[in-house]
Design goal:
By secondary structure, the protein is mainly α. It has 23 helices and three strands.
Length: 495
């Protein structure tokens, strides 16, 4: 067939329906492990269905393959950044940078402003670790216990924990979703983060004010033993000093100076390794202080017979690419102070690649265009477009039950619409995070909702009304768009 047919809207719905069905089954069968392989398979199978329909329509396999490769190539900068993010997390852990952020963050906790402080502490820890899940599973669990001792409603405390955790998750360059959203939209990491501040900062400010008002009307004395135990354990393992913040400060300055993300992050990785060797030498040279995070054996990383130089190189290298965990009698600290390096990013990278395979197949087959034509013809203004994007993200969180899918599929669906309307890709990436990332935890059958219920012991229905940041974010995204603030038309390369 010399003239292939264009994909129709009904044909486009077939691979989408297959994808949603498989993702729902994955969450049902694999639960929290759905993103560690099953969802990647679902994306590939849905891509195969799209490919079969495209071939029936007359497209050649070589054309489909070129479309897939073009799609993957667009995500390569983000894949490289994800690898460096993994290495950065590892060296910043063993250097004491992340532990120092957590230690000083816990210093500000006060029973009189417990809810405000709990949200703020989770913001700091999640910014440092890039993970709302690990923040909730460690500091969050302690805060739930303290909140109960203070007499707070457990759903209210969980709302403060989740609000702070998801703010940090959104704004941290260490976060997988913060890297995934710009990869899907065609933006870059630091532009995406800067653009998110226009909606994310007002949203968290409103949430903090609400928590502060509630806290002042209900606060009382309580036991801070769990928090003190975490601080004591961190101080026992690391040389904690404000000087450690010089490294993230240097990285921030590089970002402000508009140094590209890859070299800026590489500088952060190398400085983290240098600080580990110079300021945390006792930790990295102690064969009983670190484990590989898998065997949990104290001597898993280095042998006591190794020279100082060999041990230092091995520990720093291991932190960059693999599992490292601080050995601690405090289980909370052991869980919090762990990193998986580059290897920990592999499943996210696989998700990005398989998502781009699906997107490339859908785009080459004309299916994405068939879907977006509905929006192009019906939506004339920017605000309804952003509202439609936000609604689609929430829809996928409710139906596909997976946070990543609520970013990946709408990102691929809407990217050409924003491009067609000459809108900057960071507007799309911001909307994906404002609506996809933060609302996933509010859905009981979503993998994020199920995870936090298991970790915090609080049903999503109980904490949903108090996750003020998560509830406000999608509305703030639409409201800021409606004002037209910082929404400039995309500048072409010819300009």
């Amino acid at each position: 067939m010399s003239n292939p047919k264009k994909g129709t809207f009904l044909q486009a719905l077939i691979p989408l329906a297959v994808l949603v069905t498989l993702l729902v089954l994955n969450v049902s069968y694999f639960e929290d492990d759905a993103s560690y392989g099953p969802n990647q398979i679902a994306l590939l199978l849905a891509a195969a269905i799209a490919g079969v329909i495209a071939v029936i329509n007359g497209l050649k396999w070589d054309d489909l393959l070129n479309g897939i490769l073009k799609s993957i190539n667009q995500a390569m900068p983000s894949i490289l950044i994800l690898m460096l993010i993994g290495a950065l997390a590892g060296t910043w852990l063993i250097s004491g940078i992340v532990p120092a952020m957590i230690y000083y963050g816990l210093e500000i906790l006060s029973p009189k402003i417990f809810l405000f402080a709990a949200c703020l502490v989770c913001m700091i820890v999640s910014l440092a670790t890039g993970s709302s899940w690990s923040t909730a599973a460690t500091v969050g669990v302690a805060l739930i216990g303290i909140g109960q001792a203070l007499g707070f409603n457990v759903g209210l405390v969980a709302g403060a924990v989740i609000s702070g955790s998801y703010f940090g998750d959104k704004m941290s360059p260490l976060s997988d979703t913060t890297n995934l959203a710009p990869a899907m939209a065609g933006s870059d990491l630091f532009t995406h983060i800067r653009y998110m501040t226009y909606t994310t900062v007002p949203s968290i400010a409103i949430a903090l004010i609400i928590f502060l008002i509630i806290g002042f009307s209900a606060s009382g004395p309580g036991n801070e033993g769990d928090i003190l135990a975490v601080q004591t354990s961190i101080q026992g393992s690391f040389n904690i000093s404000p000087w450690l913040f010089l490294v993230p400060l240097i990285v921030i300055i590089l970002i402000i100076k508009k140094v590209p993300a890859l070299p800026a992050l590489l500088v952060g990785v190398l400085l983290g390794g240098f600080v580990a060797v110079t300021m945390q030498s006792e930790l990295i040279l102690d064969s009983n202080a670190l484990s590989d995070g898998e065997s949990h054996e104290p001597s898993a990383l280095i042998d006591p017979a190794y020279t100082n130089g060999k041990a230092s190189i091995m520990v720093v290298t291991q932190a960059m690419f693999g599992d490292v965990q601080v050995v601690s009698d405090n289980a909370m600290v052991a869980d919090l102070l762990s990193s998986s390096g580059m290897m920990g990013m592999m499943f996210v990278i696989l998700l990005v690649i398989t998502a781009m395979v699906f997107g490339g197949m859908m785009e080459t087959g004309g299916f994405l265009q068939a879907i977006v034509n509905i929006f192009i013809h019906r939506i004339k203004r920017t605000t309804p477009l952003v509202a439609s994007t936000a609604g689609t993200c929430v829809f996928f969180n409710l139906t596909a039950s997976e946070q990543y899918v609520s970013i990946v599929v709408p990102g691929r669906m809407f990217s050409s619409v924003y491009d067609e309307k000459n809108l900057p890709p960071e507007l799309l990436s911001r909307t994906l995070e404002d609506s996809g990332t933060v609302t996933s935890v509010l859905v009981p059958w979503n993998s994020c909702g199920a995870y936090h219920k298991g970790v915090l012991g609080v049903d999503p229905i109980a904490y949903l009304p108090y996750c003020f940041f998560n509830l406000i974010s999608p509305l703030m995204s639409i409201a800021v768009t409606a004002t037209g603030y910082k929404i400039a038309k995309k500048v072409s390369k010819a300009d």
